[in-house]
Amino acid sequence: MYKILIIEDDPTISSIIEEKLEKWGYKTSRVQVFHDILGDYTSFEPHLILMDINLPYYDGFYWCGKIRQLSNVPIIFISSRDTDGDKIRAISQGGDDYIEKPFSMDLLIAKVQAILRRAYSYSDQTLNILQHKEMLLDIEHLKVFCGEEAAALTRNEGKILTMLIRNHDKIVSRTRLMKALWDDESFVDDNTLTVNINRLRRKLQAIGLEGYVKTIKGEGYRLI
To answer: Where does the source fall among the domains of life (predicted)?
Structure first.
């Protein structure tokens, strides 16, 4: 699961951001004590940072510079400052993107997803978050998301969806799915896989992902 550190001194804004990110399956931490932001960074070890510029003690530019001495972790600046000079300074000092306040939460999520995809690649087999179009799968917590909607999966449903996402550009045979789920398909009733597929389809449909799992007659399944 990707971890995102929120460095924003307005508790209302930081709370809204945290709630939205967690609905998308991200693990978050909000900085509460602003004189030791570097300590929060080193203890949490985030995959991405959301950084306000106007902060108590030292501004976001200062902390960006300190973090850049340690890491190339992606940093998105979020600020009410709207001058070209501020944007240029943010990027030149190590920021990866800049969002002006007030901003759309959908825009923030899109930028977070894009930067994480570039930095870490959703297709990496070791990651706990997988994406296909607007669908996100949290493998660790067995949850699938579409926008703000979410559905809990069983272990087998999670394995099926993981395999389909990782092979989204090809057909996955029933035999291959059964081997992944039960080691030896000869001990499994073929109907058991069908039951799991149908349950998965109903859960995806309930969160707005109808028809995502397509049956290829005589071959297996694939994502649309």
So the answer is: Bacteria
Quick one: pLDDT at residue 189? 62
The two tokens of residue 134 are 């607007």
Q: Which CATH architecture has domain 3-120?
A: 3-Layer(aba) Sandwich (3.40)
d(CA 30, CA 144): 24
pTM (two decimals)? 0.56
CB atoms within 10 A of CB 90: 23
DSSP conformation letters of 58-120? S-HHHHHHHHHTT----EEEEES---HHHHHHHHHTT-SEEEESS--HHHHHHHHHHHHHHHH
Contacts of 33 (CB under 8 A, 6+ apart): 40
Distances (CA, A) of 68 to 40, 90, 98: 15, 12, 17
CATH number of 129-223: 1.10.10.10
What whole-number percentage of the chain has pLDDT above 90? 42
Summarize pLDDT for 103-160 with one digit per residue, the tens. Answer: 888 889 888 988 888 887 644 444 567 778 888 888 878 888 887 688 999 988 999 9
Domains in the chain: boundaries: 3-120, 129-223
Residue 52 has pLDDT above 90, yes or no: yes
Looking at residue 182, its amino acid is W
